[in-house]
Amino acid sequence: MKQTCAKVLMGAALFAAPAFAGQDFLADVTQGAFQDTMHGVQLLTDSEKERVLGGYGISFIELRNTAVNGTSIAEIGAAVVLTGYELFHNVSCGANSTNCATESFVNKQRYNELVSLANPWREEYLVVTATKTTRPSYGTFGGSIPTFTYGMAVFNANTGWITRRITSNSQVGSEVMQRYKGELNRILTTQYR
After folding, report:
1. Hey, is 85 helix, strand or coil?
2. What pLDDT, on a 0 to 100 scale, did the predictor assign at position 136?
3. Domain ranges across the chain
4. Residue 40 pLDDT > 70
5. What is the pLDDT of residue 38?
């Protein structure tokens, strides 16, 4: 599981590099456990990025980590980062897909839906969010009670803020939720206590 997580995070860091230039998100997300300068991690050059024919990558980001009156709230997100290939051909091919049909009606439809929600040309990214709220328990057994909620939002990389929450369903958002909900839970459970 750790190796799979590391691969996902490394792949996401490679795709996210141009969108979040100057920041080592791999190190940020893994709290220094992995870095984009480590052995075996290779950042792609611009020409190598253009030759990637696969689908979008995922970048895990911290959105909120606060505590008020004994209640802690931690929120992380899985941001959808389209590849240069997808942006050039106006298609969305699926998470980490290795082959992409540029004439596919479904891929074009997914791209149009995604861009209508979060425009990558304005540094906006669709983010599937997972929030862990931990409230103190004052009952017989004490301790704390964590609850998890999920949703979708638009993250603006220029401001570093969520610009709006999305209440409608999205094909890409549903796919990301299905594929990465377990990983989001694991990160919230292990890194935010």
Report:
1. helix
2. 82
3. 2-191
4. no
5. 45
**What mean pLDDT comes out for the span 90-114?**
89
Q: Are 123 and 21 in contact (CB under 8 A)?
A: no
Q: By three-state DSSP, how is residue 110 classified?
A: helix
Q: C-alpha distances in angstroms, 174 versus 27, 178, 191?
A: 27, 6, 24
CA distance 57 to 62: 17
Mean model confidence pLDDT for the chain: 77
Q: How many other C-beta atoms are found inside a 10 Å radius of the C-beta of residue 70? A: 10
Q: Which residues contact 167 (CB under 8 A, 6 or more apart)?
A: none
Q: Where are the alpha helices (DSSP H) in the chain?
A: 2-16, 25-29, 46-50, 84-89, 105-117, 171-191
Q: If residue 146 lies in a helix (H) or strand (E), which one and from where to where?
A: strand 144-156
Compute the Cα dihedral for 159, 121, 175, 56 and give only its sign: negative
Instruction: Return the higher-pLDDT residue of 23 and 190.
Output: 190
Residue 143 half-sphere exposure, CB side, CA atoms within 13 Å? 4
Residue 57 backbone phi and psi in degrees, to 5: -105, 170
Q: Is the pTM of this model over 0.85?
A: no
At residue 47, the pLDDT reads 64
